[in-house]
Amino acid sequence: MPFWVPAAGVSFVCAPQPCLAAAHGPVGPLDLTRHWAGYLAVVIFFLAYFLAMAEEVTELRKSKPMVFAASVIWGLIAAVYVGGGMPEQAGEAFRASLLTYAELLLFILVSMTYLNAMEDLDVFEALRCWLLGRGYSYRQLFWLTGILAFMISSVCNNLTTALLMGAVVIALGKDCPRFVTLSCINIVVAANAGGSFSPFGDITTLLIWQKGKVPFVDFFHLLIPSIVNFALPAACMFLFLPRHHPAAVDKRIPIKTGGRPIIVLFLMTIVTAVCFENFLNLPPAAGMMAGLTYLKFYSFYLQKRTATRSPSADEVIPPDEPIGDTEEFDIFKKVSRLEWDTLLFFYGIMLSIGGLSFIGYLERISQFLYADPERTTFANILVGIASAFIDNGTIMLAVLTMDPQISQGQWLLVTLTAGVGGSLLAIGSAAGVGLLGQAKGYYSFGAHLKWVPVILLGYFASIGTHFLINRSYF
C-alpha cells in the first residue's frame, strides 16, 4: 500500500511494487525501474540537473531545465498509468508531491518576505554598522556569523537560518566579495551541522525521532561530531580570508520605524510555526502563514500611520528623520521581490524526485544498500553523500521505509551523515539553494564546488569522531 510523508520539502510514494504487466488489474504502484519510461526519466533528470549546475556557464537559469524535467517525468509516468487503466494513481501521487511543495513554497515566501521587509527598514544595515563599529576583522566576522548559524539552526530550520545570516554577511561584505563567498559556504555547512544534533533542527532528525529509532536525549550525543563537521572546513577556509578590517563606519545607522517590531514579529512567526508542528500536528507552513498575517496587520498600521503623517506641500521633513517613516510600507511589494527562479527550481527538484521515487528507484537503492548487514557503515556513509544530490529527507524516509535492523550507533550515524551530507554541494540542501538565490553574484554552485575537498574532510572527520566518542552505542 503506498504512503505519503512530508520530508524536508519532498514527499513521495514508496511501496513494495508489483510488476508492470498486471493482467488482472494492478493493485498498487507499478515498478517502472526497468521500463523505458523509468530509464528515460532518469536520463532527463540528470541532464536537467547538469544544466542547472552549469548555470554560470550557460547563463540558463536553473529553474528552467528542472521544471521541464519535472513536467516530462510526470508526463511519462501518467502516460504509462493511463495506458494501464490506472489514471487515478499517478494523479494522486503527483498531488501529494505538489502539496508538500506548496507547503515549502509558503514557508519560504513568508521567510523571504520578512527578510525583505527588514532589509528595507535597514535592520541588516544597522547590524552591519554595529558589527563594524566593534572593530571586528573579516576573519572574526567569518567565525561569528558561522557560530551564530550553527546555534540558530539547532532550533530553527536550516533554510531560515541561512537566509537570515546570508543577509547579514552580504551587508557586512559589500566591499569584499571573497568574504561574502566564503561566509556563505561557511553558513551552509554550519546550518546543516547545527540541525543534525537536535530533534527539531532538521527533518531527518525529526523523522527518526518520530519513528522512535533514537530517543530524544541521545540526539545530543551528535553535538561534538556536528561541531567537528562545521569547525574543520571553517578553519581551512579561514586561512584564505583577507586579514584586513572592513571599512570603518563613522556614523551609526538607525533602524527605520517599524524595523524592531518586525524583528519581534518574525521571531513570533518562527515560534508559531514550531508550535503548529509540535503541538497541533499541522505543517509548519500553516504557522508561517499565520505569522504572515502578523506582518500584514502591522503593515496596515504603518500605512495608516504614514497617511496621517504625510507632509503638506510646504512642510519640510527633518533631514535626520529616517525616510522609512514617510514611505508607504506595502507588504505585496516585499512579496514581489522574492527570488522566483529559486522557488521554481525547488518545484523542479521536488517534483522530479517525487516522480523518481514513485517509479521505485529510491526503494531499490535502499534495498541494495542494506541487503548486507556487514556493509551498514558503508551504506550509511553513502546515504550522506547521496543527500548532496537528493534531498536528505527523501533519503532518510527511504531508509526508514526499509527499517534495517541496525544498532543505535548506526541510527545516529545515518542521522549525522544525512544531515550534514547536503553541505557537499550548493544544491544539496535547502540552505544552499536559498543562498544561491539570495546571494547571487557572490555565492554560486561553482564557488561552493571549489571547497568540496575541505567540506568532505569535515564530513569524514565527524564520522570518525562519532565512532570515537559514541562507540558504546555500536
Q: Please, could you describe this protein's structure?
A:
With 474 residues, this protein is mostly helical. The chain has a domain at 104-189 and 249-311 and 321-336. The chain is 65% helix and 2% strand. It has helices at 36-53, 55-58, 63-83, 87-120, 123-133, 138-152, 158-172, 177-194, 203-210, 223-238, 259-278, 284-308, 331-336, 340-359, 361-370, 376-386, 392-402, 408-420, 430-438, 445-449, 452-469, and strands at 4-7, 10-13. A two-stranded antiparallel sheet has the order 1-2. A hairpin with a 2-residue loop joins strand 1 and strand 2 (10-13). Helix 6 runs antiparallel to helix 7 (158-172) and helix 7 runs antiparallel to helix 8. The longest helix is centred in the N-terminal third of the chain and has 34 residues, at 87-120. The model is unreliable at 1-26 and 312-326 (pLDDT under 50). Residues 1-21 form the signal peptide. The chain crosses the membrane at residues 37-54, 66-86, 98-117, 141-172, 219-241, 262-279, 285-302, 343-361, 381-400, 412-439, 451-469. This is Sodium:proton antiporter NhaD. It is found in: Membrane. It is a multi-pass membrane protein.
